[in-house]
Amino acid sequence: MQIALVGIGKIARDQHIPALAASPDWQLAATVSQSGAGVDGVESFDDFAQMLAQRPQIKVVSLCMPPVPRFAYAQAALLAGRHVMLEKPPGATLAEVHALQALAAARGLSLYTTWHSRMALAVAQAKAWLADKQVLRGHISWREDVRKWHPGQDWVFEPGGMGVFDPGINALSIVTEILPNPVHLTAATLTFPANRQTPIAADLYFSGGLTAAFDWRQLGPQTWDIEIDTDAGAMALRLGGNRLEINGVEVAGEASIMGEYPALYARMADLVARGQSDVDLAPMVHVADAMTLGRRLETEAFHF
Ligand code: NAP
What we know:
Layout: E1 2-6, H1 10-22, E2 27-32, E3 43-45, H2 48-54, E4 60-63, H3 67-79, E5 83-86, H4 94-107, E6 111-113, H5 123-130, E7 135-143, H6 146-149, H7 165-178, E8 185-193, E9 201-206, E10 210-215, E11 223-230, E12 233-238, E13 243-246, E14 249-253, H8 260-274, H9 282-293, E15 295-299
Parallel strand pairs: 1-2, 1-4, 2-3, 4-5, 5-6, 7-10, 8-15
Antiparallel strand pairs: 7-11, 8-9, 9-10, 11-12, 12-13, 13-14
Helix pairs in contact: 3-4, 7-9
The structure holds NADP nicotinamide-adenine-dinucleotide phosphate.
The site of NADP nicotinamide-adenine-dinucleotide phosphate has 21 residues, from α1 and α3.
C-alpha cells in the first residue's frame, strides 16, 4: 500500500522513515513538509491539500507533526477519504480525537491512535504475567533530560504540548495496557517552570496504590521504569517496556526500541485490510485528569 508521511521532523527521521523502508506492507509514496524536508527518491509536497488532491492513489497518511496542528491535518485527510495514523499523543484534546473517531466511522475509514511504547518488546509478556495476579502497589519512574530528547522543541512547553507528559504518556500507555484492572488518578503535583505553560515534572497518585514520578530535568542515567508488586511476586519493566524482570531476574528483552515502529506500521496495515480502527484514549485521560486535579508548583525558568 502507498502511504504519505506528513511532518518530517525528529520522530519521522528517527523511526517512521526507517520503519517504512523495512516494511513489506508499505511503500513511502510521498512526503509533506512545510520546511521542504524530504526523503531521497520520494516525491515531496509542501502543501497537504495539494498532495491529497493530486495523489488519489495514496490511500493512507501518517501524521508526525506535534499534537496541536495535527487535528486539522487528520480532519482534512479523513474528509478526503484517506485512512489516518496518528503519532502519540493522538491530539491536543480528548474531544478532538472523539470527533476524528466519529468522522472515520461515518466514512468507513481506519483511524489508528498509535502508542509506540505499547509495542516495546516486553510489554505483551508483562501483561500476560500480570493477568492472573492481584496488584498490591506500583511505581513509575520516568526521568529524562529534555535537552537531550527534545532539543530546542519549544512546542512541548506551549499549551497543548503537554510538557513532561509528552514522554510520561508513554508510561501511561504501558500501564493502561498491562494492568489487569483499570486505575484512576486521585491526586497530582505539577511543577511548571516560571516562564513556561506546561509542567517540567509531575508526581501522580492513582487508585490501587500506583504512583508515578515524571521528571524532565534528569542528568546522567535516564530512567524509564515501571515496578509492580503483586500477591505473587514483583515485576519490573525497564527501558521503556523493552526489558522485563520477574522477582529481580531478567526474563525478556533487549536494549533496543527499534521494534516499536515496525510493529505500529504492521498494525496499521492490518487495520486497513480489515476495515477497522483502533482508538484508545485511556493514557490521555490520565493526563487530562492530572491537568484538572493537579496542584501547581512553580520552579525556576527553563531555557534550552
Ligand atoms: P518536531 O521534530 O519538533 O516536529 C515534527 C515536524 O512537524 C516538524 O519538523 C515539522 O515538519 C512539522 N511541524 C512542526 N510544527 C508544525 C505546525 N505548526 N504545523 C504543521 N507541521 C508542523 O517533533 P517530533 O519530536 O518529531 O515529535 C512529533 C510527534 O511525535 C509528537 O507528538 C511527539 O510526541 C511524537 N514523538 C516524538 C518522539 C521523539 O523522540 N522526539 C518519540 C515518539 C513520539 P515539516 O517542517 O516537515 O513540515
